[in-house]
Amino acid sequence: MHLPILRPAFLRLLFLMGSVALLACLVLLKKEEAALIVYPETEEEALKEENPADEFGIPAGLYHIESGLVGPRHTLSHILGGFGFTASDIDRVARQMGDVFSPRRIRSGNRYFAYLPEIREAPLHYFVYEISDLEYLLIDFTDSVRISRSAREVQQHRREASGVISSSLWNALIDNDLHPQLAVQLARILAWSVDFYRIQAGDSFRVLFEEDYVGERRVGVSRVEAVRFVHRGREIEGYLFEADTISGYFDAQGNNLRKVFLRAPLEFGRISSRYSHSRLHPIHGDRRPHYGTDYAAPHGTPILAVGDGVVTQASYTRGNGNYVRIRHNSVYETQYLHMSRFASGIRRGASVSQGDVIGYVGSTGLATGPHVCFRFWKNGQQVDHLRLEFPSGDPLPDEYLEAFREVVRDLRARLEAMPLSLQEAA
Q1: Which of 107, 185, 194, 278 could be disulfide-bonded to 190 (CB atoms 3.0-4.6 Å)?
Q2: Where in the sequence is the domain holding 289, given as residue range(s)?
Q3: Is 399 a domain residue?
Q4: Distance CA 164, CA 199 (A)
Q5: Which range (10-24, 91-105, 274-288) has the least confidence?
């Protein structure tokens, strides 16, 4: 058998065809590889891939960061001027910034962060101003000027705390390294049941709550789940119940902790003078009736309406100073004296709800220091409100009682298992 003789021209043709086929295969393989690789479209995206973002969404590790606190009476001009911005540059930033956050609201003591390239002669790339523990303002100078307002991611952690009070609830919480906002929450929940101006040594508390964290930093208290407070030998319990349109605190039997009136018109302060038929007047020097309760507090402390009602007077007299009077119904009226100023919208005929801010502590009129003189009328007669017992709000409807009892069973077991003090728990 004889094999055919292949001519050189034919061999060259076969070689050429094979090369074309091989090249086509390589092209297809490259296309498949390219489909699996995502290339960053911009230099900024490339940097973000190589450097994970920090808490403000800025690529970490690329910048020299200068942080500081806003100084007293410092403005945006003071801060940005320190980084080489001209007056016209700052004016342009301030105008654009106004749509997101007013530059006038920059507050002394708040933190800011300036992101500068490692080449120190280069201009500022990013500027961050902390509006609060949760919110911040970001100004991006890398591509014209972009301004945004954002919030950090918040995580809730369930916690429990207990203690015996030696001086005040506030001090007991601070001494046990608890966030002061917990005191505010407890004061609001128990405002109708506990006289926080008469707390005495030996009063105690147990509380279950959720605390807010940003990273490892504690920033507040989101809600209280349950509290047991012993005040002057009387035990008060409150359990949070939320279902459908109901959200509030109830005792173990489903009675509403909220009452018709708050115990006091301030969240925090101290009683400096009580209701009396014969009191030595601090200015006139003689003895005369004092048909009110004085609560001393720092100048500017918010004053709260103790109940729903309508403002009948918001005026000034030489003795009362700036004062507000509220009619709650046909039986009860209240009056708040010596305000530094009225809250926005507080005028005759205005409707207010329980807990609304109606003014601020001052010393206008005949007053020796900042306080609010709180007066209470029942059927047209001034009475000592601290001696009255007020009815509660609506109890929990019957159809929710079974679900509520299950909530109470779990929360009460956790309260009872808790030692009375954090020291005991340790």
Answers
A1: 194
A2: 270-387
A3: no
A4: 11
A5: 10-24
